[in-house]
Amino acid sequence: MKKVITYGTFDLLHTGHINILRRAKELGDYLVVAISSDEFNAGKGKKAYYSFEQRKAILEAIRYVDEVIPEHTWEQKIDDIKKHNIDVFVMGDDWEGKFDFLKSYCEVVYLPRTVGISTTQIKKELNKINHA
Ligand code: C2G
């Protein structure tokens, strides 16, 4: 069984997230998604609208996702890859090159981001509508 892993906040789920999850799953048979904890997000300077538990429940409902684990630190990726016997690590290409050190442990694939959509953009547009 070929196992794939990807990491992210996955807040306010949108088609950009769905596209990468679908394509990540197409690279193997089993997809693990590591979702940033609320504390880890704070470290990324992000405050998710949905809590970790809500984001976890939403991702677990997606047909491409087989398992959801928490992402607590930047440093846990190597341990995750070993512990979950991961064959492929996938990230959007906004992270191109940033995780090449993982190539000693598994295949590293950067997939093109979906253009024209982001959680930040959704929040901005909703704010505009509500303050119009
Ligand atoms: N993504 C995408 N297209 C978009 C938006 C996001 O392909 N329009 C991808 C990102 O490239 C990332 C994944 O969806 O691979 C999750 O995006 P975020 O939730 O923004 O995650 P991020 O904050 O990049 O966290 O340790 C890695 C970090 O946890 C990644």
In short:
The chain is built from five helices and five strands. By secondary structure, the chain is an alpha/beta fold. Strands 3-2-1-4-5 form a five-stranded parallel β-sheet.
Protein described:
- It is a single chain.
- With 132 residues, the chain is α/β, with parallel strands linked by helices.
- It is 36% helix and 21% strand.
- It has 5 helices and 5 strands; from the N terminus they run βαβααβαββα.
- It has a 5-stranded parallel β-sheet.
- The model has no long low-confidence stretch (mean pLDDT 97).
- The structure holds [cytidine-5'-phosphate] glycerylphosphoric acid ester.
- The site of [cytidine-5'-phosphate] glycerylphosphoric acid ester has 17 residues, from strand 1, helix 1 and strand 4.
Highlighted features:
5-stranded parallel β-sheet, binds [cytidine-5'-phosphate] glycerylphosphoric acid ester, single chain, 5 strands
